[in-house]
Amino acid sequence: MKPTKTDLRVVRCAERLGELNRREPRELRRDGEMERGFVTRHELAGLLRVSVRTVDEMVAAKEITPVRLHGPLVRFYMPDVIRELTAWAVARLEKLKGGL
Predict the structure, then answer these.
(1) C-alpha torsion angle, residues 28, 86, 56, 51 (rounded to 10)
(2) C-alpha distances in angstroms, 1 versus 15, 18, 89?
(3) Cα–Cα distances in angstroms (integers) from residue 3 to residues 27, 28, 56, 62, 99, in the given order
(4) Which domains does the chain have, with CATH numbers?
(5) What's the rounded Cα separation, in Å, for the pair 89 and 20?
(6) What residues have CB less than 8 Å from 9, skipping those under 6 apart?
(7) Is the Cβ–Cβ distance between 85 and 10 less than 8 Å?
(8) For position 75, what pLDDT does the model report?
(9) What is the phi/psi pair of residue 60, to 5°?
(10) Residue of 95, 48, 37, 33 lying closest to 57 (CA atoms)
(11) Which position has the higher pLDDT, 65 or 2?
(12) Letter string b/e over residues 1-34, b meaning 16 or more CB atoms within 10 A of that residue's CB
């Protein structure tokens, strides 16, 4: 079975988050929100090295779940993003292995 663009994107993002997770936590902290683990769409896109549109597509595909704060204000809780993307990546890799 040939991997789709979505398969590759999810695996790539999970790998990038793994790299970030291995870094010193202070490297990721720029303000109070990031220190608490919450990031904006733009910050998440930067951390994953993807576009904001890709982040929006990942939300629409239910690959990651945003946290809604005070009406339209949306943030992403990094421990949840790491857990969700890792689970998606493992599931997609298992699917690909099963198709070989």
Answers:
(1) 50
(2) 21, 25, 16
(3) 33, 31, 21, 19, 10
(4) 5-98 (1.10.10)
(5) 16
(6) 50, 54, 58
(7) yes
(8) 92
(9) -60, -35
(10) 48
(11) 65
(12) eeeeeebebbbebbeebeeeeeeeeeebeeeeeb
Strand order from edge to edge, sheet including 67-69: 38-39, 73-77, 67-69
d(CA 27, CA 63): 26
Alpha carbon distance 26, 53 (integer Å): 27
Digit-coded pLDDT (tens) for 20-63: 666 645 444 554 445 568 899 999 999 888 999 999 999 999 99
Residue 29 is classified by DSSP as -
Per-residue DSSP letter, 64: S
96 token code pair? 């690909």
The model carries a pTM of: 0.73
Residue type at 35 in one-letter notation: E
